[in-house]
Amino acid sequence: MLKKGIFFLFAFFVCSLKGQTEIKTMFYNTLNYNSDTQSQNRTHHLKTILNEVKPDLFMICEIKNETASNYLFDNAILPFNKSFSKVTFKYSESPATGLLQMAYYNNKKLTLIAEEIIPTRIRDINHYTFKINTKNSTINPIIIEVFVTHLKASRGNDNMQKRLESTEIFTRELDRLPSDSFVLFAGDFNFYTSNEPAFQKLINVTNSIKIIDPANRLCPTFPDNGIDYFNEDNYNSTYFWNNSSFADVHSQSTRTFQINGDGAGGGMDDRFDFIMMSENFTSSSDLFYVNESYTSIGNNGDCYNSYVSNPSCSGFFSQSLRNTLFNFSDHLPVVMEIETPENTLSIKEIKNPISFLSKNIISNEFQIKVNSKIDFDHFTIYNQLGQKIKTIAITNQQIIQVNTSNFPKGIYYLKVDAFKPLKFIKI
User: Fold this and answer.
1) In whole angstroms, what is the distance from residue 168 CA to residue 370 CA?
2) Bridge partners of residue 114, in order along the sequence
3) Of 252, 117, 278, which is closest to residue 192 (Cα–Cα)?
4) pTM of the entire predicted model
5) Are 102 and 89 in contact (CB under 8 A)?
6) How far apart are CA 33 and CA 102, in angstroms?
7) How do the pLDDT tens digits run along the chain, 427 residues long?
């Protein structure tokens, strides 16, 4: 254990001094979010969720119009992080005009350099090109191609065919990109199984850019026995995501009944929401997927066919967060993190925005002074093994008092963004 702790500290300080940039991506079906009072009245729930998750790239579907997008941005996103910007709102160029996609991003970490609409027979695919704001972005730009969509819902061969057609349009777009492009493809895909033709097309190794599932949770393949398992008469949940063995990746439905006549009931039993990625995120040293960071937020893995706020569905995600998720949408947000060793800040040139007001040898509490011009919204305390102990919000106060009475004696590190960590000792 001691060796593990020493190794972590070495790695921790090397990374801190060298600099790195973490980007948390999040996709969320916002459930018919409109410019009406009903949608506005649940906006505070989204602000709470964003404060908890803290994404850098926030992608959504099921927003109704630009007025709704602006209200969501002003009343949920900016209060969470004032450094966010929004892409250009685009009305649909495809036949289904009532449910649209949108994206919002942390402009301290990302710059939007291109955007376009890709029409399909059902709903648009929104394509955004972002550049990471690294110090070396002029000579070594890191570009991410982001696609967001909402595939056709419901069972049946016709709906599966429509999902396949939209997916084929997306994979043809991959042909237009450089083969080493970093690609994210997010949305409510409405897939019932990874055996569905559209999903198989999406992960086909012959695509010009190979797309994979970061969670790596595919269904068992259909047996070669001549049975059509897509026929409801032959349904076998073994080969679909709708079974308890996939309970930890389900994202819909958060409810067992409708609220105000909106959304789906039926409980947590479907994996509809995805962020897929190009395979080079697993092999590149310039930009890479953070292992095991793919998560259905609020899903503790023990809520199959139940509602997400059920007190018996306890675990890592708190009861209060799960209550909020229940009230905002019938879907859960999914997140994944990516990282580059490049840094968006110069640690040598920019002074650490936090500092101790007293000695760093403490007993039950200490005070932190915060630079009034700080652009960060939290700092984190780690123990000497690298385990996250506490996250503390930075609001408008310049002096923050931190209670450590329940901390075991030992060495701790306080870190904000990419700055060098501050060390303190609990006695």
Assistant:
1) 51
2) 129
3) 252
4) 0.80
5) yes
6) 11
7) 444 444 444 444 444 444 578 999 999 999 999 999 999 999 999 999 999 999 999 999 999 999 999 999 999 999 999 999 999 999 999 999 999 999 999 999 999 999 999 999 999 999 999 999 998 888 889 999 999 999 999 999 999 999 999 999 999 999 999 999 999 999 999 999 999 999 999 999 999 999 999 999 999 999 999 999 999 999 999 999 999 999 999 999 999 999 988 899 999 999 999 999 999 999 999 999 999 999 999 999 999 999 999 999 999 999 999 999 999 999 999 999 999 988 775 444 456 778 887 778 888 888 888 876 666 778 888 887 777 788 887 766 678 888 888 888 888 888 887 677 888 888 8
Residue tagged 């099921």 (tokens): 62
Helix axes of 319-328 and 43-53: crossing angle, nearest 10 degrees: 140
